[in-house]
Specification:
Length: 478
Amino acid sequence: MIRKTSFWTLGSIIVACILTIKTSNALPSGGYEIKVKLNGLRDTVCYLGNHFGDKQYVKDTVRVDHDGQAIFKGNEPLPGGIYLVVLPSHTYFEIVVNEQKFSIETDTTDFVQSMKITGSLENKLFNDHQKFIIERTKYSQTLKARMDANKDNKDSTAALKKQIADVDKEVKDYRYKIMNDYPQTFMAKIIKTMSEPDVPESPKDEKGNVIDSTFQFKYYKSHYLENVDFSDDRLLRTPLLQTKIKTYTQQLTVPLPDSIIQSVDTIIEKSRANKEVFKYAVATLANFYETSNIMGYDKVFVHIAEKYYLSNDAYWADSTLKAKIHERVMKIKPNILGEKAYNLVMPDTAFVMHSLQDVKEKFTILAFWDPTCSHCKHEIPLLSAYRDSARQKGISVEVFSVGIESDIELWKKFIRENNLKWINVSDLYNNTNFRNYYDIYSTPVIYLLDDQKRIIAKRLDTEKIRDFISNSMKDKSK
């Protein structure tokens, strides 16, 4: 379904810049004219949209006349890519835009099978490919259904597996033929981008034992991007480039910040082959890791921000955007997982000073809360009950509890009513600048520190704190 997307967070400001991408591929002058005849549709409107990464955007809107004719035209050439003709019912079919003037006739009952193309080799290849893949997919699904029904018959299963493998080979051969026969077309580029590495068998020793059980995975990952032409910005207007980036960083990479950073840098460095692809890669990856809910991924955002934005490598970023990114980095960087927590020295209700670094337990829970916050009213008593229960069981844990309400009487009242026995402190006048060091923009915010006061988890609720400490203790005992 086509959609205009609005997403204005800090991450969205980063991403918004990429929507100004221009094509760098040479295009013919004279604008574009795409004639579409839609049998089964009349006296309405339809839309021309384009893919952009994993989203779609409306490019043009035209009237469909009484005979089902619609003409998309403009004075400037369309940037190459995979576009969509979208009907009012939100159904659509895809076309390849590389040539700028061509005609298509199709039927609303079956866009692909009834399509006729005039004046576009790209779309003839694209439509023939769609028809072939649909037909082979249906046949393969039939074979798989037969295999499931005969799973107890080894001979039958073996024969069906071979037939399925033969179908897969047919598809590969068909695609290779397009690439070989029409190497200069964008369709050949699309197919090449879609292709995946052929992984060889793992090497074996003289006894036939596999030498490295991870060989095939490592081979697949190291060759996964080799068919992606990062110099061709037409791929931005297909779903393919974004899919490759997502698969490489999220499925083929160990989900740990340092490993992800290596993969992110691999993608971005390859994308330098085209300034607009570089712009897209940096902005998209920065937005994803800045807005991710996965704990620890903010370290990846900080890396991208410092290496590409704040180093002035991001040529599209103006001073306002860089200032916002710098401000966000300064709030995240002090509390990245693995970093030593910034020490806080604050008074308790009797104005006796307490230092975070002086807590001697194996686990320190650093909690920021507000007695007027409804979520805090629920979560802080749960945390108190867990702390008391854990200590009774001999678990070495303490809570360094920071009340952020400026009304001292409200703070004290909440402590009394909920019998909070932990270290209760507050910085009524913000002398410690704790909000910046711990990125406090809502409450409650709860960090977990180890015995060296390194941050090992953050933004957790009580249940997750309990699980995290329990799992940490199990891991240490092992």
